[in-house]
Please model this.
Amino acid sequence: MKKRNSILAAVLVVSSLFISLNVSAQDHRNGPPPKGDRKGPPRGNHNPEQTKTLEEIGGYKIGDTATDFKLKNVDGKFFSMADLKGAKGYIVVFTCNGCPFSKMYEDRLIALHTAYASKGYSVIAINPNVSENNERESFEAMQERAAEKKFPFVYLADEGQKITPLYGAVRTPHVFLLDKAKKVQYIGTIDDNPKHAEDVKIKYLENAINALENGEKPTPNFTKAIGCPVKPNK
Amino acid sequence: MKLPLLIFSFLFAAVCHGQATATKALKSTNADINNSIAVYSFEELEPLLTSDSNKTFLINFWAMWCAPCVKELPILQAYEKEHPNVEVLLVSLDFPEDIETKLKPFLKKKGITSKVIVLDAPNANSWIDKIDPNWSGAIPFTIVFNAKNRAYYERAFEDVEDLKNEIKKTIKNK
Model:
């Protein structure tokens, strides 16, 4: 028993060493400034520069009327929002085959469509990265992915990126929720945890759909997320 | 009973020490720099985004799954080799569980010796604006700064010349 105690003591000494090392490591990294007193990331003070602002990227803002389109679906037929008779809104999602973030959200998009299509809100997935030169993002690859996952929604190819820049989709997945009149009511991400659906705390998109359903404006109506960049069409 | 425990505590000490040195971060350019890759929360990353020193810092947000990011890494690496006084930090948005199996082999294969940390902060909507309100969330994304000046780039640098010019513009002429 005594021996055990001495070993325990040794472990304790070692752990306290670890803690002190860690503390010094923290100090080394400038240390977080006390709350309410933080300087940065500095804004205003010294002319931050940016190559391309969100405004310059362009695309729709909340309240803009989104354009309809005629894009090829994975079933080979062309699809327009006008084809959805009696729609109360449109869940336009720019997504693709290869992006890990897109993949992580596939099942959640299927669930959303399943829950809301009958209420008048269908998911419309658009691949901005479709390219015959990229085997992961070719039209055939899209067809395969749609079949594998049994997408209950349309999965459209924006060949030549005619629609993507109009919306201003810059990453995948990037959601644009339109109301009945195709006015943009929510732009952003699906929820607050791409990787772990079970740990999601805020369902931004679903909340926004419910707001529309209740005749209210979504709050927030604009969110950001890390995603794969939409590959500019060259 | 005693021996395994002793071995365990020594191992424990070694591992802890390794982690502590890793979090010290941002130093040296040797090939072993990414033997241990630390996982940061946003709150832990935030203090690294500003500095009072005269040094120039370059912080690049990237991930293995981001093709333009991967293409850009050798440019950042080449710049760092030419300018050892500039502190380069690569903030990977890859998954923490991929560090051993994917990230380390990837860095080794690509010969990346710039300092890498992994940012594990799921609710990106809560922190993207704190870094830069103009950032859409797409990567690669780079911040160049010193104590006085700062610039953001939501794009990949085309080559080392491009990066050099931008850094000069940001740091020198103000």
Q: What stands out?
A: Confidence is low (pLDDT under 50) at residues 18-29 of chain B. Residues 35-171 of chain B form a domain with the Glutaredoxin fold (CATH 3.40.30.10).
